Amino acid sequence: MRQAGRYLAEYRDTRAKAGSFMGLATNTDFATEVTLQPIDRYGLDAAILFSDILTVPDAMGLGLSFVNGEGPKFERHVRDEASVALLKVPDMDKLRYVFDAVTSIRKALNGRVPLIGFTGSPWTLACYMVEGGSSSDYRAVKSLMYQRPDLMHQILSVNAEAVAAYLNAQIAAGAQAVMIFDSWGGVLADGAFQEFSLAYTKQVLEKTTRTHEGQTIPRIVFTKGGGQWLGDMTALNCDVLGVDWTVNLQRARALVGDRFALQGNLDPMVLFADPASVAKQARRVLDDFGQPHTGTGCGATHIFNLGHGINQHTPPENVATLVETVHEYSRQMRR
Ligand code: 1CP
């Protein structure tokens, strides 16, 4: 949903061969192939593992499937004491296919670009686990949160532990950076965000391996709709804060200072405009952040990215325009 996906014809071909989304994700060769497709096509600067955030609740026994055109569905949802009591950190062996894919992708990349591993945040995974799939109003998960915060905390504690173990296994398998997608953190009220989302992202970061084979593993936290809580997020032990398109990068930079890089934040819908407008909007994002640091290491730099997943109807040639513009213009800015 960030690089690979249905907007690419080569992805649709491989997915048809695999028969289903999970057929694609659980097959090492297919997962490797689709991870590399956008890298080969566009010359991107990093690869992101082809998998999904929902593999973790699937491994917890909730029964994941992706119905064409309907999005993810779980056979069982978690909404009452009995189902919460059954939840536990899954045996990481059930997710072996993800770690095998990481190792295989590293081999296939052969040092061309670094590989980013990822997970959903405890809160974002809980949304799907309680709702049983995607939701437009988060009614079930918010009812549980307000009525039985004790059960909600129980789910989130299990998720935090599961997600940390999942990231650690990806790092051991060769992931060179990790990203936590808190895609639905922004649907929470102020106060609820800190208690039910941020606190558990913090736990995940505390339990995640900092280095592997002498290399620091950078950690990225992306909260869609989380711009108003960037100040709270500076308490996180991570290196990069991902932001969506509602955030002004210059103000965000002033707020987070040198301790964090910022990742983002083009509105994915820009990619439906004509190429000249795509290029203009890409330059606008780079200008908003301003001159990046010129030193080495982490610091107040900018990692260009979309502010959310890529829409399945995106014209692929506009992504080419975007990548070319970002490369050209950001090199110009660094001169
Ligand atoms: O190259 C890549 O895109 C990397 C693999 C990747 C990533 C990082 C996929 C494959 N999904 C994700 C993350 C993900 N999955 C998020 C975070 C998105 C963000 O904040 O940017 C979310 C919310 C999901 C859950 C999910 N997976 C949905 C539901 C979205 C919703 O609105 O509730 C759906 C439809 C999927 C399916 C999926 N996962 C990935 C792809 C390419 C697809 C769609 C293509 C298909 O069905 O074949």
Notable characteristics:
7-stranded parallel sheet; 13% strand; alpha/beta; two-stranded antiparallel sheet; 49% helix; globular; binds coproporphyrinogen I; 14 helices
The helix/strand class is alpha/beta
Radius of gyration: 19 Å
What is the CATH C-level name of the domain at 9-242? Alpha Beta
- Write out the strand line-up for the largest beta sheet, numbering strands in chain order: 1-4-5-8-9-10-11
Termini gap: 33 Å
CATH topology of the domain at 9-242: TIM Barrel
Mean pLDDT: 96
**Total count of strands:** 11
Annotated CATH architecture of the domain at 9-242: Alpha-Beta Barrel
Classify the beta-strand content into a percent band.
Answer: 5-15%
Low-confidence stretches: none
| Count of helical stretches | 14
Major sheet characteristics: 7 strands, parallel
Q: H/E series, N to C?
A: HHHEHEEHHEHHHEHEEEHEHEHEH
The percent range for helix content is 40-55%
- Ligand kinds: coproporphyrinogen I
